[in-house]
Structures are given as C-alpha cells and as structure tokens.
Write a structure and sequence with these properties.
- The protein has 17 helices and no strands.
- It is globular, with a radius of gyration of 26 Å.
- The chain has two domains: 183 residues, MFS general substrate transporter like domains (Growth Hormone, Chain: A), CATH 1.20.1250.20; 220 residues, Growth Hormone, Chain: A, CATH 1.20.1250.
- α10 packs antiparallel against α14.
- The chain is 80% helix and 0% strand.
- It is mainly α and 444 residues long.
- It comes from Trypanosoma rangeli SC58.
- InterPro entries: MFS_trans_sf.
- Keywords: Membrane, Transmembrane, Transmembrane helix.
- This is Transmembrane protein.
C-alpha cells in the first residue's frame, strides 16, 4: 500500500499542475478581454461624443428642415431636461441590477434609435418626430452615470486613458466631422443616418464584447449613488445658490453668445460648414485647453486677470450687435477674446472658489451639483436668448439686452464680493435696458 500511494503521487501532482495552469490561462484570458473592453469602452465614448456633437456645425440645416418657434424650442428643451431628472434614479437601479457596461451599451443603443428617429423627422419635416427623439434621449440617455459604473467594474482595465482628454479630442473631431458632413453630404437626413449608424455600431460592439468579459461583483457600490446625492442635496440649505451664482453667470454668458456662432457664420458670412466646424473647434480648444493653462499659470484668483476678463465681457456684450459689421476677421477676434477666452477663464476661476467652500467629505457631491447647475443654466440660457429676440424682434440691440445684464452682474460681484448684490443687479439692468430706447449700430 505505501508503494501504491508513492506511485500515485506524481499523477496527483501532474493533475494539480494542470489545474493550476488552466486557472492561470483562464485568468490571463480574462485580463486580456478586460483590456480589450477598456479600449472598446473608451472608443465607444469617443464615437458617442462624435455622433451627438457633430450636429452642431450643421444646426442651420436642422432648423431649415424642422423650423422651431419659441414654444417648440421650449418644449424641445423640457422634453430632454425634466425626463432626465426623473429617470436618473430608475436608470441607476437598472445599471446596478445588471452591470455598468451592458447598461452603457444599452443607452448607446437607445441613443442610436433616437438619432434614427431624428433623421426621419428631418426627412419628413416632422416636428412631432423631432420632439419624440428628444423625449427618448431624455428618458434613456444616461451616459455619464453608466460610463462611470462601467469604468469601475472593469477594475483597472481603463488605466492609461485620460477620460477628460478623450472627450476634448472627440468634441474637436466632432466639430470638424460635422462640418465635413454639411459640405459633402447633400441630404441632412442622410448625414444624420450616418451618425446614427456610428452610434449603433459602437453600442452593438460593446454589447457583444460584454458577454466575453467578467465584471466586478455588483454587491459593492463602485460610485456614489444617485440616491445618496439626492439625500445630500435635500439636506443642503440654499447657501450653495450664491456660491455657484458667479461661475454660473459666466457659463450662461458664454453659452448665449456661442450658440449663435453657427447661424452667424452661415447666414451673415456665408462660410462653408467645414470652416464653421473649424471655428467651433477653436472655441473648444480655447475653453478646454487654453483657459485652464492661463488659470494654472496666473493662479485661481488672480485679481488682475479677473478684472480684465470682466471688462472684456462688458465690452463684448455692449458691442455685440456691431461685431458682424466690420468683417470676418474682426468678428472672429472680438468673439475669441471678449467672449470665449474671457468667459472660460472667469468660469474656471470662480468655480474653484465656489467648490472650496464645501467640506472635504462633501467635495464629490458639491462638484457634481456645480456641474449640474451650470449645465442646466447653459441649456436654458439659450431659450432665454431666443425669448429676448422674439419679444424684442423690432430692436437691433436684442443681443445686447440679453447679454449685458449678465456681464454687469459679474462686474458687480467682482467689485462688491457680494453675490446677492450681483443677483439683484442682473434683473435691474435688464429692466433698464428694455425700458430705454433701442440703440442702433451707430449709437452703440
């Protein structure tokens, strides 16, 4: 018997070695697939940004196919904004029940469907289909939440990828690609179908690869939950409103003027869509690359830079109806320095100060709230601009009436360091401008 056991020992060792080798091979294969998934996830993020932002340079083609009034524009924005607020909690529960990668792929798939619906709306000149596409996005598009869950579930597979830089580069590519579509694809509906096909391909690839990859356990909460964020927000008093107001005013000012660039470039200067895309790409570079470098170089609260940027905003707001009368070069230089650069620098400087007022334990939620507030104000400030133009359609200085109160409010905050004073100055300035006689270009 001892001899038989001694003879069996090498076989047992061989089987044990084989099992260990198979386990190691399985682990290596899983790691390889996770690396592929990390690459594909970032690639899908790029494609999603390109597919959804490429419409901006050709927005004039959209407005020509489906003309929108003030009320339809307001409804269009409401169908995106309010359903997203309502569906965030449900979306998070859905993502944690399955996994972040599959949820992210699903939201990309639904986004592709909404882009297809938008293409049909442009082809048929249908306002109802166009609004339906916005509602689909409002209910089911939660890319930021799902992407954060997916990145954490892949546990290190996305290391080496800078998500912020990826988004910046993707947006620049989107502006150039959208401009090329406008010039070289004659039918705007067909161009939109190309974007939808890109989104659909990215979603389908991500879904297929997700079956091959093992994810982290769903028991641990990988990122702060929407419910925790909501509970924290309900406990906050209104002190965050004056804290975020200055940076939000800067974001609103830039958004109101920049949303008019595609229309001015095309309708006033008759630029090709490629050049419109190039103009918007330069705006993104100024906001996302140049402005942070300047803030890093001169400090977060450099008083000299703050006063210069505030002065530039005031001059840009007052002369806004006049800048298109002196040629393309004057228009581009004036908007670059008096709007894009100045608003971006002020927003960054004032944002850092606002977020520093919160405790270290609340910093994540505070940054999230600040981002949401600025995003919401940017979206609705465009509706405000259209409203001012509609109400003051007989005045040449409607843009000045819309933007000057914001610039004056920022100047009031910078000199008084009192947010409440700035928030009072904004409506008072608006009332004074509306009540005063309109100024023509010579008077301005």
């Amino acid at each position: 018997m001892p001899l038989q056991n001694e003879r069996r020992t090498p076989k047992r060792r061989q089987r044990s070695f084989k099992r260990n080798k198979e386990a190691k091979y399985s682990e290596d294969a899983g790691t390889t697939w996770r690396s592929y998934m990390g690459f594909v996830l970032n690639l899908a993020t790029c494609i999603d940004a390109v597919a959804n932002a490429s419409a901006l340079p050709i927005v004039t083609l959209y407005s020509a196919s489906v003309p929108l009034s003030l009320w339809s524009l307001t409804l269009d924005q409401a169908l995106l904004f309010f359903p997203q607020l309502w569906s965030s909690l449900v979306a998070e529960r859905f993502a944690r029940r399955i996994n972040g990668v599959t949820a992210y792929a699903t939201t990309l798939l639904v986004t592709a469907i909404s882009i297809f619906v938008r293409a049909n709306a442009l082809r048929d000149h249908s306002l109802s289909l166009y609004l339906l596409a916005r509602l689909i996005n409002g209910l089911f598009r939660h890319t930021v939440l799902f992407n954060a869950l997916a990145v954490r579930e892949l546990s290190g597979a996305s290391k080496g990828y800078d998500a912020k830089k990826i988004v910046i580069v993707s947006l620049i590519v989107a502006m150039l690609f959208g401009g090329a579509l406008g010039d070289y694809v004659s039918d705007v509906a067909f161009a939109t179908n190309i974007l939808a096909s890109m989104e659909f391909t990215a979603a389908l690839t991500l879904i297929l690869l997700s079956f091959k990859c093992k994810f982290r356990s769903k028991t641990a909460a990988p990122v702060p939950t929407v419910k925790a964020y909501k509970d924290w927000l309900m406990k906050q008093s209104s002190h965050w409103i004056p804290a975020f107001a200055p940076s939000t005013l800067s974001a609103s000012y830039g958004s109101m003027i920049q949303c008019m660039y595609p229309f001015i470039d095309r309708q006033v200067f008759h630029l090709d869509y490629v050049f419109i895309g190039l103009h918007l790409a330069v705006v993104i570079i100024v906001q996302a690359v140049l402005a942070p470098l300047v803030v890093k170089r001169y400090g977060k609260m450099n008083q000299w830079m703050i006063h210069v940027c505030a002065a530039f905003l005031s001059v840009g707001a007052w002369t806004s109806p006049w800048i298109t009368d002196n040629g393309l070069a004057m228009y581009l230089c004036t908007t670059l320095f008096f709007t894009d650069f100045s608003a971006a620098v002020l927003e960054l400087m004032l944002s850092s100060v606002a977020e520093d007022d919160f405790k270290a334990s609340e910093k994540v939620f505070a940054c999230t709230l600040h981002r949401h507030v600025k995003q919401a104000v940017k979206q609705w400030s465009r509706i405000l601009l259209v409203s001012v133009h509609t109400v003051l359609s007989n005045r040449e200085d409607a843009m000045r009436v819309a933007t000057t109160p914001v610039a004056v409010g920022l100047v009031a905050f910078i000199f008084t360091r009192n947010t409440r004073v700035a928030l009072v100055v904004v409506p008072l300035t608006a009332w004074a401008l509306v009540a005063s006689p309109p100024l023509d270009r010579k008077a301005i």
